[in-house]
Amino acid sequence: GQQVMQIPQYQHVQEGEDFTTYCNSSTTLSNIQWYKQRPGGHPVFLIQLVKSGEVKKQKRLTFQFGEAKKNSSLHITATQTTDVGTYFCAGREGGGNKLTFGTGTQLKVEL
Amino acid sequence: DVKVTQSSRYLVKRTGEKVFLECVQDMDHENMFWYRQDPGLGLRLIYFSYDVKMKEKGDIPEGYSVSREKKERFSLILESASTNQTSMYLCASSSSIRTGELFFGEGSRLTVL
User: Fold this and answer.
1) Where are the alpha helices (H) located in B7-94, listed in sequence order?
2) Residue B108 and residue B37: Cα distance in Å, rounded?
3) B61 in A contact zone (CB under 8 Å)
4) Is B107 in CB contact (< 8 Å) with chain A?
5) Which residue(s) pair with A92 in the sheet?
6) How far apart are CA A71 and CA A85, in angstroms?
7) What does the DSSP 8-state code read for residue B67?
């Protein structure tokens, strides 16, 4: 079955440093979504990417979808303490209904 | 504001007990999902439903069943709880099965002793 892996599993950064998490699927995806889960909270939708090579930005966050539609990345520029949480990618296999979540990257930001 | 409500935030049950986890959404969404979340494993899909009385198995359906008698309500049932079902259970809904974003409830943390 489809597998979605994320690296790294954990990342500690100093406030102001950049952060990137990578998502890799074993199969080609029709679309990929990103979610953020604050400590003690539930996942909240951030964005969806659909097109091959697509790049979207939300303030300090940049999301990319790979040309082969099998990988994606989330980059945060100049992290802040409000960025703390776990970031999940979630992909749908081409033609499928199931949304498969990645293993997540837990980000900690230190002052 | 959209809302997905899970009936219990914390439950403690004994091995062999039957457990019901209830989820209600107020967004008139066709699609509802049950995931379990475990450290290092991310969110794993147990079951989903794309219409009343319709259900499909996810990636880890063993030991679970579901019920969708009304559009707004999706229940997860553990017929005979086991310790390896101790986990955080997350319910979600979406408007589109293939493209929609998921709206999650607050989660139900189940401990099976």
Assistant:
1) none
2) 10
3) no
4) yes
5) A31, A99
6) 21
7) E
